[in-house]
Write a structure and sequence with these properties.
alpha+beta, Uridine Diphospho-n-acetylenolpyruvylglucosamine Reductase, domain 3, 6-stranded mixed β-sheet, 43% helix
């Protein structure tokens, strides 16, 4: 195994680093420490980085340090500084993990290890209770979860208390760094750790952390069973041509607890894997029950659910997104195009090639969505774009989200889109019959390439 280890320099991560290094030879582990300097504490943050790099050097481990201005990151993505810090860390961890995968290490032989402990588990469960969690949230932090690209995130210290970790560091003379901001009741989590848990311990239950973590373990088992049952129902209801669409009939007699989890699976498939609330799931259920064959509801982050007769479709609304974003128009000779096409095919990129002489003035080409009067030239003749979409069974609500390459009202290319049911159109789109390029002829070729 190759372990990408988040190493902040604090007691938890230094403990885990030492444990893994001690086990590395016997268990055939290769440790890849990763440190992130969040630039939250000027001076102290740089000292933490130097400490970690020196610690790794003395143990013969190659440390990767990332310096990220998390305050700027928070402003850019409109998130809290805590959220920005977490994003910076996991971005760094998976950057290193992807480098390992790219160098030939099998993804199942790579794991990201983080040093959360039993105290963090208790804080997480209380934090979620205060925010109004359901039973899944009560399960707290998982020992192992699927991360990006099939690489697991593991938490080997999740059953260890902070006092046990500190005792280990003392016995091993590790001398970790101490982040004094952790002792400031500024963030909600800090308040829970510094104020709420001590109050509950003193006034209600001297073993409150152990009690809450036991609740989390019980909830995790129940939640795992319900997820398995929901996965079975999802498989019975999912549309064979679209993993983000469900037939409504198989959901009618399913217990609500399972049905809502099925919706959650579909939302995750559509990209909305986080910040799904009970209100969102209930909105989906209302769309399912609606008598309108085209009912829909807006969820969060641009995601929507729409009813199309006997189906529920989960998707991200792309209204307002520039259809030209991600595409580049280029002019080249036939010889240049031959080399480009071979290279682009090898890279797996998507592109369309068109005859410059047939187009005339390439400056008049537009990447846009459909307009009234648009038509495409097919082998059977000229066809309205509206009729083309109908023939392709593209639901009305999605037709304005499919980009096209247009020369006035003439469509040269209906570009690839997940809204098609036809797999070939999903991957390549549909080209006009009247603008084919021939690189063997001495003509200018117009290429629209995915960046």
């Amino acid at each position: 195994m190759h372990i990408v280890l988040g190493l902040s320099g604090g007691p938890d991560s230094v403990c885990l680093f030492n444990v893994l290094m001690e086990l590395a030879e016997d268990m055939n582990l290769t440790i890849h420490p990763v440190h992130v300097n969040h630039k939250f504490r000027p001076g102290a943050a740089e000292e933490d980085q130097r400490y970690v790099e020196e610690l790794c050097r003395t143990r013969g481990a190659a440390c990767r340090s990332f310096v990220v201005d998390c305050n700027e990151l928070a402003r850019t993505f409109k998130m809290t500084s805590e959220e920005a810090g977490r994003k910076a860390r996991y971005d760094a961890f998976f950057t290193v993990a992807e480098e390992l995968a790219a160098s030939g290490t099998a993804r199942e032989d790579i794991a990201v290890a983080v040093a959360q402990n039993a105290g963090d588990q208790c804080e997480t469960i209380l934090f979620r209770i205060l925010r109004g969690t359901g039973t899944d949230g009560l399960a707290g932090i998982a020992y192992k979860r699927a991360g990006e690209g099939g690489i697991s995130v593991i938490r080997p210290l999740l059953d260890m208390t902070r006092s046990e970790i500190e005792k280990y560091c003392e016995d091993c003379n590790l001398q970790p760094r101490i982040d004094h901001t952790n002792n400031e009741a500024v963030y909600t989590r800090n308040k829970i750790r510094l104020e709420l848990i001590p109050y509950l311990t003193e006034n209600f239950n001297s073993n409150i952390a152990e009690t809450i973590n036991r609740l989390g373990a019980i909830a995790a088992e129940d939640s795992d069973f319900l997820r398995q049952e929901a996965a079975k129902v999802y498989q019975s209801a999912v549309c064979p041509d679209d993993e983000c669409a469900l037939f409504t009939a198989p959901l009618a007699d399913v217990h609500r607890a399972i049905r809502l989890r099925v919706y959650n699976i579909s939302l995750t498939k559509a990209g909305m894997g986080e910040n799904v609330t009970m209100a969102h799931l209930e909105a989906v259920d209302q769309v399912r029950l609606s008598e309108s064959p085209s009912a829909e509801a807006q969820l969060a982050g641009g995601y929507r659910v729409s009813k199309a007769y006997d189906r529920l479709k989960f998707y991200r609304d792309e209204a307002g997104i520039d259809p030209a974003a991600g595409w580049e128009l280029r002019l080249m000779s036939g010889e240049e195009y031959a080399g480009f096409a071979a290279e682009a095919a090898e890279r797996g990129r998507i592109w369309g090639a068109f005859s410059g002489s047939a187009v005339g003035n390439p400056e008049k080409l537009q990447v846009r969505t459909r307009k009234d009067g648009d038509y495409i030239l097919l082998g059977s003749g000229k066809k309205k774009l509206q009729d083309f979409f109908v023939d392709c069974k593209v639901p009305k609500m999605y037709r304005d989200r499919i980009p096209v390459l247009a020369l006035g009202s003439t469509i040269l290319w209906v570009m690839p889109s997940a809204y098609f049911t036809n797999q070939q159109y999903q991957q390549k789109g549909r080209f006009s019959a009247g603008f084919r390029a021939d690189f063997e002829k001495a003509e200018t070729i117009i290429v629209l390439e995915q960046k």
